[in-house]
Amino acid sequence: MGEDITIAVGESPLIPHDIHFIRYFLQLKSNKSLSTASAYEKDIKDFFKKDIEAITIGDVRNVSIFDTQQFILDLTSSGISSSTISRKISALSSLYNWMLKYQDNKTGYRVLQFNPFANLKEEKPTINNRETSFLSHNEAVMLLDCINTSTIIGLRNKAIIALALTTALRKSEITNIKLSDITTYDGYDVIKVIRKGNKQDMVKLQAPVRNLIEQYILNTGRNEEDNTKEYLFIGHSSNGLNGQKLNKSALNYVIDRLARRAGIKNKHLCVHSTRHTAITLAISAGASVEKVRDFAFHKNLSTTNRYIHSIDKIKNNAGDFIKVI
Q: Crossing angle for the helix pair 21-30 and 82-100, nearest 10 degrees?
């Protein structure tokens, strides 16, 4: 049996086209989500401390429950968040579960016997489900008003935040927009985006947001006809990232920094905060649950209903009936 590139049972390789077995696993994952596949690749390399192509079947087989427990201890002591640790364990468990599927009916041969990442409920740290901070309508206006658009970075940042607050887009959906994705549909300004599961969708642009985007593109010396393959939001710095696709983590930093500049205190803001804000503002303004579900691209109506429940809990609070003061 090949230990480096293919997994073979008898004369029949299980991995077609001589693709490394983990690379093949990541290709399967990328069919549903490129961002998930990218995160899984990083988590797998972090655990094995090797590049993907250097990991052998022997490396995978040699992992014991003690190795997985020590991995969690090391991550915890290094200060990594509980949610990140949980994600890393899930990524590695997913790899082992996939490899457990491969068995040979004629010989009874199995690539693996068990998944050492499968039963770590007691070892994994409890996830701190801190509620996502979001903005009121006035705070959203304050955030946009504080941005100085006399610089190209300020213009970019205002376009990003205005887009996020009016479309509820996720981080990857914003950073992956290319100039060719800005178009019109049936007379409406829209942006084509790739949603979770690599599903294509269109989001409607409000006129002021479209104007900000056009100003930003113009100030970068580009246009939608000649630079179609370039990413819309790019870096503008001297740290080697100038002109390159904007990093997702940079979005969170920009939003949180601008919120402090706007005087919005006691809220740790990120792109998910702008998404949460957009959904909440739409519901508060009277949009139907079905429209909000489509707007947020929620798979299930129950996800949208959680936002409605949170608002109703505040608006129609049982405590309002208590008159003791």
A: 110
CA 17 to CA 5: how far, in whole Å? 10
| Contacts of residue 63, Cβ cutoff 8 Å, sequence gap at least 6 | 116
* Percentages (nearest 5) of helix, strand, coil residues in the chain: 55, 10, 40
| pLDDT tens-digit readout, 124-173 | 766 555 566 788 899 999 999 999 999 999 999 999 999 999 999 988 89
Select from 214, 197, 217, 218 the least CA-distant residue to 205: 214
Residue 158 · residue 142 · CB < 8 Å: no
User: Which residues does residue 99 pair with via DSSP β-bridges, in sequence order?
Assistant: none
Residues 6+ apart with CB under 8 A from 225: none
Measured over the CA atoms of residue 136, residue 141, residue 142 and residue 147, the dihedral's sign is positive
Per-residue pLDDT band at 313 (split at 50, 70, 90): low
Place of tokens 């903005």: 135
pTM of whole model > 0.70? no
DSSP 231: B
| Residues 174-195: tens digit of each pLDDT | 999 999 999 999 999 999 998 8
Of residues 310, 278, 41, 285, the one with CA closest to residue 173: 278
Identify the CA nearest to 124 among candidates 86, 90, 75. Answer: 86
Mean pLDDT for all residues in the chain: 83
Which residues in the chain belong to E strands, given as ranges?
8-9, 12-13, 182-185, 188-194, 200-204
Strand, helix or coil for residue 202: strand
Q: Please, what are the domains in the chain?
A: 8-100 (no CATH), 137-315 (1.10.443.10)
Q: What length is written for the chain?
A: 325
The label of the residue with tokens 């707007």 reads 295
What is the DSSP code string of 259-313?
Answer: HHHTT--S----HHHHHHHHHHHHHHTT--HHHHHHHHT-SSHHHHHHHHHHHHH
